Amino acid sequence: MSSDLIITRMKIEEAEADDGQISLETWKDLVANDPELSLEETVETKLGTGFSFKVSSPGMAVWTTYPLAKMQGIASLFVFRKGTIVAKNADGFIRDKAFEVAGKLQAGILADAVWLLPLQKNGSGYSAAQQDIQKETSERKPWWRFW
Question: What is the pTM of this model?
Fold first, then answer.
């Protein structure tokens, strides 16, 4: 089961303050300059039941090169919300794209109120400790696999 990732510059204890928020303009500039992201303020899909599902949000972007999009008809959404970017239903592919987006925004990633990747770039990329965190989170086994 996947969960949402929150790309933010704010620390958990400072969530009420406006410091460190990502502005909507900054997010839209990043989307405009990333050929893999497309600003789509409304996304609609047909369900197998004959009904359709529609989501609307200012600042919502679709990851157009998401590997599962064509195979399974699933869209990968990045939603701007209160100074943060939320990567919806993050699987391994979406997590990797979220790390890339966080790097461009000089932000960190929160999942279940735990920092996955507090970004502090050194000259050659992320520090070794941060690369270990990224590797550890990408190698987690599903909850049902215990061997």
Answer: 0.70
Using the structure block, give the residue that is written with the tokens 């008809």. Answer: 73
Pure H helices in the chain: 24-33, 68-72, 92-105, 128-138
Digit-by-digit pLDDT tens for the chain (147 residues) are 458 899 988 765 555 555 678 999 999 999 999 999 999 888 877 777 888 778 888 889 999 899 888 777 777 889 998 899 999 888 889 988 999 999 899 888 888 766 665 555 544 444 444 444 455 545 555 556 555
CB atoms within 10 A of CB 17: 11
CA dist list (Å): 1 to 58, 73, 90? 27, 18, 9
